Amino acid sequence: MASSSWRRTLGNVRSFVGNALGGLRGRANLASWAVAGTLAYFLWVKPAQELKREQEEKAAMAAASDPYRYIEKRKPIPDPQETGLIYGKRNETKKSDN
């Protein structure tokens, strides 16, 4: 009796997955996934990769065209003020009049 229970559960899971995938079986299911994957690649993935490549090429051309461009080579020194602001008044401790 226990073996039929898990078989029924497995059958229900397979049925659910099959229905969730569109109810197609075998070659039709595989073909539909192949078409959907191909469309997704050509409509979303490939254009995004090409745009990224173009932006990188444009940035490389801009960097190569200006050899005297300033490039930061050191890490910035942390600001010693308590407020963390570069400009402005420092937080000074108040002295008591005793």
From TrEMBL:
<feature type="region of interest" description="Disordered">
    <location>
        <begin position="72"/>
        <end position="98"/>
    </location>
</feature>
<feature type="compositionally biased region" description="Basic and acidic residues">
    <location>
        <begin position="89"/>
        <end position="98"/>
    </location>
</feature>
<protein>
    <submittedName>
        <fullName>Uncharacterized protein</fullName>
    </submittedName>
</protein>
